[in-house]
């Protein structure tokens, strides 16, 4: 059995201690004597099952990282860490949090992703400074966190109804299905086709936090995304299994601050955009069935368009009519053959064409635009872009590391 020796623990002036990925089975209780310690990381110490009670003596501690350790429970003394601001318990074996956690009065961030924790203790309401909570399931007591600004949740597909959310919330990320309405039949039968004779009962009583600024949501049917708060600037919508069409776009039309829209892993064959007057950034990604994008000319303020990993895409209609466009990225769309009328885009400054094997030739572009071409076999390679491709950069690092 290997314990961290007393010698390390005698270093009273130590401010940061990282023992990541070690075969530690325990910490000596004298760790509590490193009174100057502000950061302790035991990340990846799989054999570490518990912390000594003396951990509560680390009154200067600001960051405690127990991510991916074998920790099964926290000592009650954890609540004595009055200065602690960040605690990561992600992928630990902790099943529940005890009331003592309510003593962490300075806590700003709490990560519980990958744990079995589904409910929060009543004392969570004492964490008045908590701004960011990351966990797998939605706890029903979430509205007690009166300062919460960011909430990241995992799969909540069993959730019947969205609980009342803290009004302070600005960033919300979650997977929904039943929360947003229930469906008569499963949608998996029709990939990208229109639903026929299905009964949809959409939930209309969702109360979104009034200051919500960004929402990332996975949900089967976007038609149920109604009454989104006026404050919304960024919407990321994914895993949609019904066609993206009316009334989805008209549901967004009144969001006058919404400048960023991302659609990812949507099952539509065609997406036809309709008037979204404030939209500046549009990303369409990983839509494997998508054949055609159209209606882009109705996005009058669009500055940046990114389309990537849409392996069946053959056409982006009316691209030349998106007069406001300044940046265009087409990446890993292996079936697209041509991009028409780019010469009409007088404001276009940057064109990135990466990994598009079927592109027939470099499109005509305005003189002021700089093209970055990479791994498009029929276009030739521009030399300075290699590092700009994340994919190749990462695979290169893998080779270096091997
Ligand atoms: Zn590349």
Automatic annotation (TrEMBL):
<dbReference type="InterPro" id="IPR057135">
    <property type="entry name" value="At4g27190-like_LRR"/>
</dbReference>
<dbReference type="InterPro" id="IPR032675">
    <property type="entry name" value="LRR_dom_sf"/>
</dbReference>
<protein>
    <submittedName>
        <fullName>Uncharacterized protein</fullName>
    </submittedName>
</protein>
<dbReference type="InterPro" id="IPR003591">
    <property type="entry name" value="Leu-rich_rpt_typical-subtyp"/>
</dbReference>
<keyword id="KW-0677">Repeat</keyword>
<dbReference type="InterPro" id="IPR055414">
    <property type="entry name" value="LRR_R13L4/SHOC2-like"/>
</dbReference>
<keyword id="KW-0433">Leucine-rich repeat</keyword>
<feature type="domain" description="Disease resistance R13L4/SHOC-2-like LRR">
    <location>
        <begin position="88"/>
        <end position="157"/>
    </location>
</feature>
<dbReference type="Pfam" id="PF23247">
    <property type="entry name" value="LRR_RPS2"/>
</dbReference>
<feature type="domain" description="Disease resistance protein At4g27190-like leucine-rich repeats">
    <location>
        <begin position="255"/>
        <end position="379"/>
    </location>
</feature>
<dbReference type="Pfam" id="PF23598">
    <property type="entry name" value="LRR_14"/>
</dbReference>
């Amino acid at each position: 059995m290997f314990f961290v020796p007393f010698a390390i623990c005698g270093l009273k002036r130590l401010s940061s201690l990282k023992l990541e990925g070690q075969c530690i089975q325990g910490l000596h209780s004298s760790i509590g004597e490193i009174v100057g310690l502000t950061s302790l990381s035991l990340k990846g110490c799989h054999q570490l099952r518990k912390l000594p009670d003396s951990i509560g003596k680390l009154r200067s501690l600001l960051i405690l990282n127990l991510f991916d350790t074998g920790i099964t429970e926290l000592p009650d003394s954890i609540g004595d860490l009055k200065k602690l601001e960040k605690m990561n318990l992600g992928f630990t074996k902790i099943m529940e949090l005890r009331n003592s956690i309510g003593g962490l009065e300075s806590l700003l961030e709490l990560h519980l992703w990958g744990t079995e924790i589904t409910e929060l203790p009543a004392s969570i309401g004492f964490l008045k400074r908590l701004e960011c909570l990351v966990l797998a399931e939605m706890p029903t007591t979430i509205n007690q966190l009166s300062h919460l600004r960011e909430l990241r949740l995992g799969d909540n597909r069993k959730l019947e109804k969205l609980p009342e959310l803290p009004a302070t919330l600005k960033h919300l990320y979650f997977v929904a299905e039943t929360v947003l309405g229930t469906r008569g039949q499963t949608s998996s039968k029709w990939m990208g086709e229109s639903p026929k004779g299905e009964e949809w009962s959409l939930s209309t009583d969702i109360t979104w936090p009034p200051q919500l600024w960004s929402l990332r949501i996975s949900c089967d049917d976007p038609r149920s995304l109604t009454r989104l708060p006026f404050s919304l600037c960024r919407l990321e919508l994914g895993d949609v299994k019904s066609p993206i069409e009316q009334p989805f776009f008209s549901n967004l039309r009144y969001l006058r601050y919404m400048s960023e829209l991302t659609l990812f892993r949507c099952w539509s064959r065609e997406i036809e955009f309709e008037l979204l007057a404030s939209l500046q950034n549009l990303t369409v990604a990983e839509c494997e069935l998508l054949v055609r994008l159209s209606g882009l000319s109705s996005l009058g303020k669009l500055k940046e368009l990114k389309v990537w990993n849409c392996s069946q895409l053959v056409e982006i209609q009316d691209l030349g009519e998106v007069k406001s466009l300044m940046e265009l990225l087409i990446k890993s769309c292996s079936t697209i053959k041509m991009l028409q009328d780019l010469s009409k885009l007088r404001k276009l400054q940057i064109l990135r064409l990466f990994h598009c094997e079927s592109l027939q030739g470099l499109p005509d572009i305005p003189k002021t635009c700089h093209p970055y071409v990479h791994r498009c076999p029929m276009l030739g390679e521009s030399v300075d872009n290699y590092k700009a491709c994340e994919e190749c950069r990462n695979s290169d690092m893998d080779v270096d590391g091997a």
